Amino acid sequence: MVFELKFADVGEGVHEGEVLEIYVKEGQKIKIEEQLFEIHTEKVTTDITSPVAGVIKSIKVTIGEVIHVGDILITIDTDKGETKGEIVSTESKQQEEDPSLFKPSKPFIARTRKTQVESSTEVINERVLAAPAVRRRAREQGIDLRQIRGSGPAGRILASDLSHSQVSTSSATNEFVFKGTEHRIALKGTRKTIANSMRQSKDMAAHYTYFEEVDMSSLDDLRRQLKPLMEEKGIKITYVALVMKCLIPALKKFPLLNSSLDESTNEIILKNYYNIGISVDTADGLVVPVVKNVDQKSIWQIAEDIGRLANNARTGKLKMQDISGGTFTITSIGNIGGVMATPIIKFPEVSILGLMKSKLRPVVIEKYGKPEIAIRPIMYLSLSLDHRIVDGAVGARFINELIKYMENPSLLWIDTQ
Amino acid sequence: MRKILNLDGSIAKNTEEPIIPNDELLHWYEIMVQIRTLDTKGIRLQRQGRVGFHIFTTGQEGHIGIAAALGSDDWVYPAYREHGAALLRGLPLEDIIHHLFANDLDTQKGRRLPGLFGEKNINFVNPSAPIGTQIVQAAGTAYASKYKKDGNVVAVFFGDGATSSNDFHSGMNFGAVFKTPTLFVCMNNQWAISVPLHQQTAAEKIVDKAIGYGIHGIQVDGNDILAMYQVAKEAVERARNGEGPTFIEALTYRLGPHTSSDDPSRYREDSDVENWKNKDPIVRFKKYLIKKGILTEDQDKEMWDHYDNLINELIDQASKRPLPSIETMFDDVYETLPWHLKEQLEEVKKYSNR
Amino acid sequence: MVELNIVDAIKYALEQEMDRDKDVIILGEDIGKNGGVFRATQGLYDKFGPERVLDTPLNESGIIGFAVGMSLYGIKAVPEIQFIDFIFPAFDQILSELAKFRYRSGGQFTCPVVIRSPYGGGVRGAHYHSQSPESLFAHTPGLKVVVPSNPYDAKGLLISAIRSNDPVIFMEPKRIYRAFKEEVPEDDYTVPLESAAITREGKDVTLISYGAMLHITMDAADLASEEGIDCEVIDLRTIYPLDIDTIEESVKKTGRVISVTEAPKTAGFGAELSALVAERWIEYMEAPIIRVAGYDVPFPFVLEHDYMPTPERVLDSIRYVYNY
Prior knowledge:
The complex is a heterotrimer.
Chain A: E1 2-6, E2 16-22, E3 29-30, E4 35-41, E5 45-49, E6 54-59, E7 66-68, E8 72-77, H1 108-112, H2 132-140, H3 159-164, H4 189-204, E9 207-215, H5 217-233, H6 239-253, E10 259-262, E11 267-270, E12 276-278, E13 280-282, E14 285-287, E15 290-291, H7 299-315, H8 320-323, E16 328-331, E17 351-355, E18 359-367, E19 370-386, H9 392-407, H10 411-415
Helix pairs in contact in A: 6-7, 6-9
Chain B: H1 22-47, H2 63-68, E1 75-77, H3 83-88, H4 93-101, H5 133-148, E2 154-159, H6 166-177, E3 182-188, E4 191-192, E5 195-196, H7 197-200, H8 209-213, E6 216-221, H9 225-240, E7 246-251, H10 270-277, H11 281-292, H12 297-319, H13 339-351
Parallel strand pairs in B: 1-2, 2-3, 3-7, 6-7
Antiparallel strand pairs in B: 4-5
Helix pairs in contact in B: 1-11, 1-12, 4-12, 5-6
Chain C: E1 2-4, H1 6-20, E2 24-28, H2 44-48, E3 53-55, H3 60-72, E4 76-80, H4 91-98, H5 101-104, E5 114-119, H6 134-138, E6 144-146, H7 151-163, E7 168-173, E8 182-184, E9 197-200, E10 205-209, H8 213-226, E11 231-235, E12 238-240, H9 244-254, E13 257-264, H10 269-281, E14 290-294, H11 304-307, H12 311-323
Parallel strand pairs in C: 2-3, 2-4, 5-7, 6-7, 10-11, 10-13, 13-14
Antiparallel strand pairs in C: 1-8, 6-12, 9-11
């Protein structure tokens, strides 16, 4: 039997990919799970291994080729060398006299046994996934479904995809040449994924945003102290890494902020693991890689993870596991500017913490029991929460707790285990 | 066992010869000749591939005696070897020939295996092929007649094999319980295809089964048309008098194969067949008619020749008729054609060459 | 108008038809003096006598064969099979005789018998008092298969069936024989065969059912509406030959179809509905065509409510096709 391996949606709405590497040759004998390809997609780069053992019959793709979900990548002969798959010729066999009235015009065996498919290197036609009603609409609107990338499961084309369909296949985002007074860019790839997930979050979560300010003096001091060590280790520690560390005791005290809502069972899932996503601005748009098990990591490890993930995000080398499994997200909006923001929760998480740019600001402090004006590095926090799960009071107490550690980081080794 | 005619055509001792007009007796004989001729023609046609199938009545022509005891408003449920009853009740001979060819004049619209026919206008019910189903239906029809106080009786024919079927039991029991005016006529021809009687039942006589149902039973020489007529006449009278059903076991023999698809030499001895050929109901009845001076040898030969020619002629005509139209495939499933059958008719028309 | 439950509506239909036409005869086990084990023929023996209300021997093949014979003679026989689970001994009479007489005789002999029989689960009856074998009959050309879901239809459909010149399998949902009452005209009226009813209008999903399952389906539609999903419900009433026009209109409107039946899923009537919709209107389908049905096991006893479709099971399928 010949097994056809098709390119599947490798996760979270991947529609196409590029073949980076082919590890096997035609005619090669392979074991089950043997590595076949490295594929680069809009979001992740992944290895593809073989689900079957056998002999490579034909490789349908080349390095550098852009492939779509559903494309056949490779065909594998799963029983090469055995005779059971071979077609036995019946022509020469003596037909036994059949006393029944019914005489088939041809021997049944020749018609009921599947004839061997001609081996060919031709690419089999692309399988477009779409519900029949969507196909009908496309036909009525004169749209060629093969030109459309589906946003549904396994790349299935949804009715909504048709309305967005346009001829442009350019993936350009910030460099384009106007042709006429309007230029249309197809919403696809990462952009499409972002659009869908943001829409879903806004549709599902009951957003509200809580603003607070935090005095960054202590964390600034800490960073300054760490600087020589950073240089020695070659690891850059950002505010994000420090805030992450401060988040853990606050999240442990207010576990609702590290939860999600399972709507199928109407249960809130409190998570005793702390995987914190960081939003990274890339050329293609926003990507959110996740630092896993932050509560079990040192600041060095956290900083190292952040550096690696951000770099991979910008170079498109994130793996599937790098972008999944988040429980809480930090977005560093302030790197560019702005005073306040209302970040959108990374659904189905329930909280997202926006860090604005730390700036020296005049603040009123108490000194010797008297108010006085001081200049302090102040960062505004914009905490968006899903009110279905987290009430305002809980959010306020949480942020107080977070600020306590951010303004007094030494408590981290006093309060925490 | 009731028997009137000896093998030589004389009246058996201590029996009463039924009083039947001569022309009627001759008519019975004429029908015997017709159906025997049909058998010789039918099997040839089948072997030539001109008709699909043939069912034999040879050896069982005695059933005409049962049919003769019925009135025209009475009902007959044939098994499928009772062509003589149909002809006696007025079915035109050419209708049987058209039916054999399943042509456009076949009143069964080409839907039945040749030999499996019925006619509403002679109250001759269309037979089934699953064995025995008609037995209980006949009881139901008889009940309907009784309920309507029409005075009509129902004769149902079936073979010895059918006495093993579910609906033999159903029919006998329902007929007995509701005291229906039914003649349950078992044409015991000794063979259910290849299975002999002793393998069909361990009862000494099939007629004994009637006792268990509380039905009056009688055994009769099935190759003796006069005895058949006489027991049927008595049973019809009992039925019309409200005395309920009668079970008649008619001892006979299937001289031919079960059908054109059967080869009896595989399972029975030629000597057995030869033995029964001596009891041929036609031969015996002919001897009786000659003895009575109703028929001469010359007239007899003339009659056989006449029907040989007539049937050849009818075959020639019937074989030139077209098959029924494609529309008939969808008629009569329901009183009116539902949407899906209309659609399917339109579809098959596209593929049909006719 | 009178307030009747289904079993009383059936009794009224029988009584009125027997009043109207003296050639209507009913027969079956325990239907006479006892009035039927479900009391569907209560009082008819006293009113019409033993000649028209026949307590028969215990033999289903006999009951149907006897009825076939009666009807060939012009009697409108309406046999009852006590539970449809007991109908199988009569299959030869139903499939080989009842269904084929008109056809095999070239239209000469007809036997328009109406076989009444309670069917279906949910009554703690286990395998031999719970089955729903409608698809076996719907697979038999020559038969009509009717399944009412409410007292009004039960009376009107039974009268139509009795007046029909074709044989009818009239399956009575015993689970809801006495579940509720509704106003039923005392007068003579008919509900046409081969005509479905829209029991709930909606635009999002078409739910097709009949008999006792119709009520499960309606409950599911209510649950779905709480989630903002607007279901249309079709009560087939006659499942064979069925009312294709009503289905077509609904399916083209919603593009989503779920059938709800209680018989085992494989080769059940839902499969026929799925196939019809797929063959004819696939291009209107926004989502897979779903069968919610009994599981492919002999009908269980204590676990029967897990076996049969529930509103929640139907609701899950509604969500699936709606969000597809």
